[in-house]
Amino acid sequence: MENPVIVAIDGPSGTGKSSTSRAVAAKLGLNYLDTGAQYRAITWWMLSNGIDVNDPVAVADAAGKPVIVAGHDPAAPGITVDGTDASGPIRTQEVTAAVSAVSAVPEVRARMVELQRAAADTSPAGIVVEGRDIGTTVFPNATVKIFLTASAEARAARRSGELNGAQSVADTRAALIKRDAADSGRKTSPLAKAADAVEVDTTDLTLDQVIECIVTLVEEKRATR
Ligand SMILES: Nc1ncnc2c1ncn2[C@@H]1O[C@H](COP(=O)(O)OP(=O)(O)O)[C@@H](O)[C@H]1O
Ligand SMILES: Nc1ccn([C@H]2C[C@H](O)[C@@H](COP(=O)(O)OP(=O)(O)O)O2)c(=O)n1
């Protein structure tokens, strides 16, 4: 049988990773994994259990405790923490503000990477994995690597639209620039474009155009291997 296809999609917040990855996985009949949801889930567990998220030693000590299970169906991925559905709670602004600190802790990353590689091992046809370090660290031999970008203005407008005006575009822009800097500046597996990734600037592209572009790249790669 053909080797499973691994599609790595990285990039900062609001570039379209989740929407694009889900659609690409659905179109190609592949599994899907949102690694940002995993980091959000462990962050939610830390906050819910009174762990000081700004104390890396406390976070490292607790990193092995929660049981995090991410779904792989692109139509309804879902995520549970200790058996409880966490899909809603992981998207709160409290979690968003704390996730960069928690995901910078090496013990947290080691655990998540283990889960991410296991997800690929149990995906016979293959998997689309989205995050920040998928092409650089988690799957350096991925079949196709994509790095999505977009202007800060476009990203803030998209995110603010999702929050239904609960946060202004200016505040959303400031928060995401702060998170980009933390994610790009950390020591362990920072947000970065792999040397062999294809960069796609989505600022002036529709979601359908981005999906089409990535599906074509994967199909071309599949045809030549
Ligand atoms: N190319 C695009 N053009 C316009 N809006 C987009 C595009 N890609 C994604 N979006 C919208 O932007 C928001 C953020 O997209 P999402 O996929 O969650 O980004 P990320 O996972 O990179 O944070 C969503 O509301 C999504 O529908
Ligand atoms: N592979 C990954 C994925 C996410 N993270 C961290 C850094 C990000 O700020 C958070 C949240 O990621 P997520 O993709 O859910 O964020 P957005 O949907 O882009 O707002 O997790 C990471 O460190 N490594």
Automatic annotation (TrEMBL):
Cellular compartment(s): Cytoplasm
Q: Where does ATP bind?
A: G11, P12, S13, G14, T15, G16, K17, S18, S19
Q: Does the keyword ATP-binding apply?
A: yes
Q: Which UniProt keywords apply?
A: ATP-binding, Cytoplasm, Kinase, Nucleotide-binding, Transferase
Annotated Cytidylate kinase domain ranges read 7-219
List the Gene Ontology MF annotations in alphabetical order.
ATP binding; CMP kinase activity; dCMP kinase activity
Q: What is its EC number?
A: 2.7.4.25
Is-annotated flag, keyword Kinase?
Answer: yes
The organism's place on the tree of life at top rank: Bacteria
Q: Which GO terms describe its biological process?
A: nucleobase-containing small molecule interconversion; pyrimidine nucleotide metabolic process
Q: Which GO terms describe its cellular component?
A: cytosol
- Reaction it catalyzes: CMP + ATP = CDP + ADP; dCMP + ATP = dCDP + ADP
- Supply the SUPFAM superfamilies for this chain: P-loop containing nucleoside triphosphate hydrolases
**Family, as annotated:** Belongs to the cytidylate kinase family. Type 1 subfamily.
Q: What is this protein called?
A: Cytidylate kinase
Q: Which organism is it from?
A: Actinacidiphila alni
Name the gene behind this protein: cmk
